[in-house]
Amino acid sequence: MFAWLPQFISGLGLLVMLSVCVAYIESLAAAGVRRVLHNVIIGSLFGIVIVLVMLKPIELPVGSTFDPRAGPAILAAVFGGPIGAIVAAAIGAAGRYYLIGGPVALGGAIGFLIYGAFGLLVMTVLRRRGLRLTPVTLAVIGALGSVAVLPAFFVSVDAATAIQIIRKAGLIFLANNIAGTVIIGLALEACRKYVQLRANLIKRQQEDAKLSLVARETTNSVIITDGDGHIEWVNEGFTRATGYTLAEAAGLKPGDLLQGPDTNPETVRLMSEALARGAGFDVEIVNYRKDGTPFWVEISCQAIQEPGQPKKFIAIENDITLRKKESERAEKAEQMLLMAIDSIDDGFVLFDRDDRLILANRKYKNFFPRGHDIIKPGVDFETILRASAEDNSYVIPGTSGRTQPASGDAAFEEHIQSRLAAHRAGGEMNQKLSDGRWLKLRERRTPEGGVVGLRIDITELKAAQEAAEAANLTKSEFLASMSHEIRTPMTGIMGMADLLLDEDLKPEWAARVRRIKGASAGLLRILNDILDLSKLDAGKMLVEEIAFEVRPLIDDVLSLTQQISQTSKIERIAISAQIDKAVPRTVRGDPARLRQILINLLGNAIKFTEHGSVTLHCGVGQSGDGLSFKVIDTGIGIKPEVLPNLFTAFTQADASISRTYQGTGLGLAICQRLVNLMNGSIGVESRFGEGSTFSVHLPFQALAENGAEGEGATAGPAAPVSRLKVLVVEDVEINRMIVEAMLAKNGHTAVLATNGAEAVDAVEAEDFDVILMDLRMPVMSGIEATRRIRQMPGSKAQIPIIALTADVVEGSREACKAVGIGGFVPKPIEVDALNQALRDAVAARRTDPVG
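^ thats the sequence. predicted structure below, dont judge the formating
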């Protein structure tokens, strides 16, 4: 009765074996080929299974066969996608049509195409809904596939025959397809799971091997304990680090084995609490080796639990002793640095690249006591700045400090933005605190983009500076007063001498008058030297850059030097000038300062030369630029030990020199400073008893021949000045007499006033062409008188006013110009200077009649 059963079981086994083979080959193909080729292989394998089951069906006792062809035909799409379905259906259709043949071959071939299409539909549904291939799912797929393929029965035969076949073999057909789909699907699924599990196992074994290698070879200590913390395993790194072997450590707790006197109890407590909760931890702790040596370790402990296994702990310990020592050294160095910074007398502050405060020492905070709460790490500079400005910790520039602009005002915001820009640029500035102290702020950018700053208390320095400025002002006022008091009588002496020399005097009387004038000129030179030195010390001496001719200037210097020198000296020594042909006709520079230098050097050379010669040589500099001057004499020379101090103010070779030749010792000091002011150089070579050579080099710029205009240039005769009505305002009677005589000599009419008030009254009463105004007078000064005249209506306010003053210090000219004085003639008054000032005033009024 069951004779067919062994054949059936054998057939099912063959089907299962074929399915396993398909699954295995499919897994191999999936690992080594691209997806398209993989799907072609899967489709081909399913097609072969279809052909094999068709060629060798299982005979059943009811006169039919077991032919599960639908299973592989449908599942080809599930496992091989559209490409697999197409390949499997094509192979199945070709096998049915060509290999099996028969009257219904065409219908069978079309049936395989329908199986393939149905398989694609099944694949889509499974993927979208995430369904798994269970026995029930596979049975439903087989049943629905059997229904879907029924139309193929009507292809090769008529409808009646088709219906008869379905009625007779329908159940067998349905059972075949369901059984085949379930068997093939389950076999493939089981095989795929097996292959996947094996791949996972191999991967896990490989990972375990790697982990074992790491645990074995790592320099870190690895400890595995049970759930109660008893050691189960340690690696070789643990043994190397502690000296304990696995045999010695097994069954003990790590703490009992490794902890000692310096182990932190708080850290031990945290570790114990974490283990009790079954949690991991990360700590740094002091452990002890087997030989008792302490060392620092960093422990990272984690709980681990394999499925079905009790919980364990794995700890990895890293020896950080060296790092701890370096950290301690760094912390000590940092503390020492912070203590050093905190102990300096200056305020120190450091901001990062985002302008956030990193560090501020105690001194810095003490400078801004109201901002202590805000000066903390992390606060940006703008916040600190605004807080300091708002609580008036410092005086905002341009304010008195008592009434400062409030936060939000335009002036306040302008100050904040200006200070921020200066802070970010780096530099220096002074800042006044609200308590009256002064700070110098120095800020520099760091390589990382931050800002490091110092706050230096310069209160004493500022006070000293203000005292020095006050003293300098006092000195300037004293010099101005001294100049005025000396020049005023000198004006009378030298003016009277000039008037007397214009008379027809006997030769001996004329010589005496010239001696009076020469002595006065000597006193005036001393006064000028003192004033020049004062200007140079104060940095108020300015140099000009104008064009001038070299040769006429040298001729003027020789002529003037001979005029002011003693007649006996002029007769005993030869004074000459030598000018090289290479010297340009015209140069650009300061002729007045050059003349002063050369006159000083020539005057010294003549003073210290009793016999022989004094020569002024002019040439081009060694490198072809600028002018070189040498004053060569055959005088007494200079001792070598004196040369280093020769250009020091108030210094002479020795006391006997001063007694014999007289002088203040200022001349050479002034020459050196004037040369330095013009970016030149000065030096001396001398042999005691043989003479000296003073050399000066000045970087004057040579000008083209046709571009020479300026001092010393050839000019036509000065334009004559018509007869003028001049108001002379002077409080000293003798000076009024001299000026009146000078004016009368040139045909001018003088009206005299003794102070500024009389001058104002005179201008209101009469018309004048020019006013000569002294500055320092009783009742009303010349400055105030000028101011009132300039406020008069009409043309009277436009009368040219020339200052006649003994104030030749810095500031006199500016004061004159400020009130409307156009000319300036210093005392003692030179006739030529006075006439030139009158010409300039008249010419200026002609070209600018409205002033």
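The two ends are 149 Å apart (CA to CA).
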